[in-house]
Amino acid sequence: LTVSASVRADAHPDAGVQLTERVAVLARPVPGWSVRGSLGTGYTTPTGRTEETEATGLRGVRLTRALDPEQSVGAMIDVNGSAAGAELLLTAYGSTIADAVQLADVPGAIGYTVLQNASARTRVGGVEALAVWRFAGGKFIANYGYARGSRPDVVTGVREGLPLLPRHRVGGDLMLERPGVYRIGIEGTWFGEQPLDDNPYRSTSKPYLYMMAIAARQFGPVELVANFENLLNVRQTHTDPL
User: Taking the model in full, what pTM does it have?
Assistant: First the structure.
């Protein structure tokens, strides 16, 4: 059993003195298996670079009052071991963010927005499962993720689903390789429905399958790599216009 703890102090010109703490525990209950848990806090200074302003730019953002730093608390536990010929990793996590920076429309000023701190905490949590099977000449990786998140609506304060966070995600990755000679891999991930933000056509997205591939060949000290993205040509415009 191993226990570790740490405390960090930052003197920031905008956020002032900030303390962040972390404690972690690692246990090995039986040979070949381990359990790790951690709990910690964090902070970040407010910034105009949110997901929304990354897409629209800062031209329409009006002068914002002083924003409070975002404060977070997060916990995670994972179990690692082997069963049924596979290496297994199971993870559960959860976190909350206080004073998350949100972008709101300016009343009566079309096309203008303002940054403000959220009226309540943003919450997110979920589980991840990963299995790796190794065989002569390669390996196969399977993964599954489940996530849920919510935040207060920037206008009403009513809790809503966290945008662009798929509830379910299932994936597989097949890699064939000969060390020092070549690597060939193909990966596919199915994304379930996810809440959308400010979409005039729908409130949740349609599920979709995203596939990619990689091929690498070694020529002495030189390795040539080719990546192939979005093999199924998944596009938003297949569902709704931009």
Answer: 0.86
